[in-house]
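ingest -> validate -> predict -> emit
validate: passed (alphabet ok, no gaps, 259 aa)
predict: started
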Amino acid sequence: MGKPPFPTPDFLDAPPSWRCIDFISDLHLHEDLPRTTAALAAYLRSTPADAVLILGDLFEAWVGDDMCQQPYEQACVDMLRDVGRRCYLGIMVGNRDFLLGADMLADCGAHPLLDPTVLSAWGQRALLLHGDELCLADTDYLRFRTQVRQPAWQSAFLSAPLSARLDQARQMRAASKAHQQMQTQSEWADVDETAASEWMQAADATILIHGHTHRPQSHPFGRAGGIRHVLSDWDLDHGHPRAEVLRWQTSGFERIALA
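emit:
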C-alpha cells in the first residue's frame, strides 16, 4: 500500500510542573490476565509520573462503552479513575480498542490522545502513535482498519446487542491468534521506516514513541539525531513474562521492567 499522508496531529504541551512522563501500551487487558491486571494496578498506585500516557490497546477488545456494565471492565475503569485523579491520564485507541469512546474516557477521568499526537516537553518534540497505521506491509490488516474506522461501520456494529458484539470480538480474537501462531515474531509487520521518518519530519520531532509491534527497543531512527522508542506489550500470565514502562524525565529516557 502507498504511504499514508501525515494526518493533522493533536498537540500536547507538557506544563512546567511536569517532571516525569510514563508511556505504556499493548496491555490487552481481559479477565483471563489476572497477574497482568494486578501488575498494572500496582504500577498505577506507585508511579511518580505527572502524566501516564497509554498509546493504544489498553484492552484486548472494546466493543462499545456499554462494556462498562461488565464486572471486569468496570473494575478496570475504577482503577484508571483513581490514577486520573492524581495525574494527567491520556489514552490513545489502538487496533484492539478503537471503539473506546468519550463516555468511557470521561468515566475514568482520562484525556483523549489522537493518533498521532505531538508531545512537547523540556525543549524536545516527540511524535506519539499507536503504530498500526504505518505497518504498511500488513496489507490485509490495513484494509480491515480502513473498513472498521468508517463511521457507518461503527454505527451499524454498535447498534447490535452487547452479547452479539462480544461474540464477534471473541471470534476475531481467535482468528488473530491463529494467524499469529502461523508466523514467527520476526515475520510480524513493523512500521515502515521511510513513512515514519517522513511523519517525524512533518511533526518536527526527533523522537518517535509507539507500540503495536511488540518489539520493545530504543534505537537511532529517521533523520540524524532521531530515535525510536518501541513500547513493550504486557503479559505476566503466559509464557515469558513481560511488562515495561518507558519513563521520560529531564535526564532522558529509562525503561523500567516490571516483570
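The chain is about 30% helix and 20% strand.
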